[in-house]
């Protein structure tokens, strides 16, 4: 089964509305499954967290499969400390998984983004 996460820009009220809707579906027995969403408060915050270097890192791990941070730093030709910092943040965001042996992997097959213009 393909795993998908949706990255959005929005406020807390939108997240609460989605939670309430999911809760009501669950109570009614009509839940459609696990929608996974990562919401940032605004576009600058999203871009601070998902930099081009971090996106490239995600692509490299997805393409190459589970690996250590040291292997990833060598693959990308980047400084270990900077790669470690990026991986730590992506783990915190739930975009990278860390196995008990400390190898990292990207569990998502698809990352989609939605950003609405303010009215």
List keywords for this structure.
119 residues; 3-stranded parallel beta sheet; 5 strands; 50% helix; globular
Describe the structure.
- It is a single chain.
- With 119 residues, the protein is of the alpha/beta class.
- 50% of the residues lie in helices and 16% in strands.
- Strands 2-1-5 form a 3-stranded parallel beta sheet. The protein has a two-stranded antiparallel sheet with strand order 3-4.
- The chain is globular, with a radius of gyration of 16 Å.
- The model has no long low-confidence stretch (mean pLDDT 86).
Summarize the model shown.
With 119 residues, the chain is of the alpha/beta class. The protein contains 5 helices and 5 strands. A 3-stranded parallel β-sheet has the order 2-1-5. Strands 3-4 form a two-stranded antiparallel ribbon.
How many individual helices? 5
What spatial form do the alpha-carbon principal axes imply? globular
Give the amount of beta strand, in percent.
Answer: 15-25%
Contiguous runs where pLDDT drops below 50 for at least 5 residues = none
List how many beta strands DSSP finds. Answer: 5
Radius of gyration: 16 Å
How much helix is in the residues?
Answer: 40-55%
Strand order of the largest sheet: 2-1-5
Mean pLDDT: 86
Main sheet characteristics: 3 strands, parallel
Sheet/helix structural class: alpha/beta
Order of helices and strands: EHEHHHHEEE
What is the rounded distance between the termini?
37 Å
Please outline the helices and strands:
Layout: E1 4-9, H1 12-28, E2 37-40, H2 43-49, H3 52-64, H4 69-76, H5 80-93, E3 97-98, E4 104-105, E5 110-114
Parallel strand pairs: 1-2, 1-5
Antiparallel strand pairs: 3-4
Helix pairs in contact: 4-5
């Amino acid at each position: 089964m393909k795993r998908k996460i949706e990255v959005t820009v929005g406020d807390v009220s939108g997240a609460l509305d989605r939670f309430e809707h999911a809760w009501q579906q669950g109570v009614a027995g009509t839940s459609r499954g696990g929608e996974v969403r990562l919401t940032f408060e605004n576009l600058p915050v999203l871009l601070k967290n998902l930099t081009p270097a971090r996106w490239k890192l995600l692509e490299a791990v997805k393409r190459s499969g589970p690996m250590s941070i040291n292997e990833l730093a060598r693959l990308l030709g980047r400084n270990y400390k900077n790669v470690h910092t990026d991986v730590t943040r992506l783990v915190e965001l739930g975009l990278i998984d860390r196995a008990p042996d400390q190898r990292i992997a990207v569990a998502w097959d698809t990352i989609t983004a939605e950003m609405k213009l303010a009215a």
